[in-house]
Protein 1
Amino acid sequence: AQSVSQHNHHVILSEAASLELGCNYSYGGTVNLFWYVQYPGQHLQLLLKYFSGDPLVKGIKGFEAEFIKSKFSFNLRKPSVQWSDTAEYFCAVKPGSQGNLIFGKGTKLSVKP
Amino acid sequence: EPEVTQTPSHQVTQMGQEVILRCVPISNHLYFYWYRQILGQKVEFLVSFYNNEISEKSEIFDDQFSVERPDGSNFTLKIRSTKLEDSAMYFCASRQYGSGNTIYFGEGSWLTVV
């Protein structure tokens, strides 16, 4: 079955630390890849997405993600986190044959001021 | 920026009762979705809807669930006879026509079944 794995359940960082959140998926065909963020008390918001082209994708708020097809991975990175980045981050995959998204379990990021 | 809106934001219901969760998708969007997130678990796909019919549904979306687009603007999820395990955050989402388009989510409706 298709699945999305996020390796870290809860990450705690100090401000200005670098961030990398792992995401791996299991699907052999064409995929569209997404990272969503859910700030406390708010809805899911799109952070960035990859459909095709340059595998290094830049999103909002200084986030970027790199699609590595051979590793079935789409890791999220940010060079220097801020307290306002405290949120839950969800990786999602849309297999080419389907219209819906398959989500990972999410990674909670806590940034200490 | 246009938004997907959902009502109610929180509903508490007794087991066995019927619940209707309402959503107003973004106006020019043609695909509509319901997802749910049980506390502490991942966001799970329930159903997608296009051209006035269900296009995909998951194993979770059994006969207790139904969706409807009653008036061209609202998109509703009905749970006929709620169970304790239906307690979750239910997210409505929508997107434009075209497989590459982003899915936009509403703020969610918290359903607590007691």
Note: Chain B has a mean pLDDT of 92.
Protein 2
Amino acid sequence: DVKVTQSSRYLVKRTGEKVFLECVQDMDHENMFWYRQDPGLGLRLIYFSYDVKMKEKGDIPEGYSVSREKKERFSLILESASTNQTSMYLCASRPARDRPNYGYTFGSGTRLTVV
Amino acid sequence: AQKVTQAQTEISVVEKEDVTLDCVYETRDTTYYLFWYKQPPSGELVFLIRRNSFDEQNEISGRYSWNFQKSTSSFNFTITASQVVDSAVYFCALGSNFGNEKLTFGTGTRLTIIP
């Protein structure tokens, strides 16, 4: 069964801390994505990567950075956590080329609380 | 710019009733993809369906059916004979065939099936 694994289900961090959210996929997918989910706003794209060491900004990249040193791992970094970054973070992956009726695969999410 | 609108924030129906979740999208692309995802309380987004813009055939999968109409830019989702296990947040999403392959999500519809 294909899998996207996010290392933590729940995290509580203090304002100003540097936070790492890890995501690993075992499907050999080229594309990986970080979204955040907030009530009433749906899912918004933070960053994505279409290859190792490649990254592109999504719709709300401010306050975040990413790292993709290996194909299977995509890390989201909060350089200095703030309370407005309290949210559910979802990682997703997909292959580079479309396959019939194939969709993105999502992880279970990391609920981050910044206090 | 791409946009997905799910006007229904919350819906409650009694078990065994039929329910339709609305999705309206905006895009300038001539080729695009539409998705529906289910997010149960566990948090992980579960892929339900993907449709290509050049295929307007409606689709049925068990109790689920989808109605895609390019003329009204809508991709509605109907659950027939609803069950308690259908209770979840449902997201409609739009993807481009070009460039970064990211998805644009709607704000979601929370569906509650009352036993």
Note: The two ends of chain A are 36 Å apart (CA to CA).
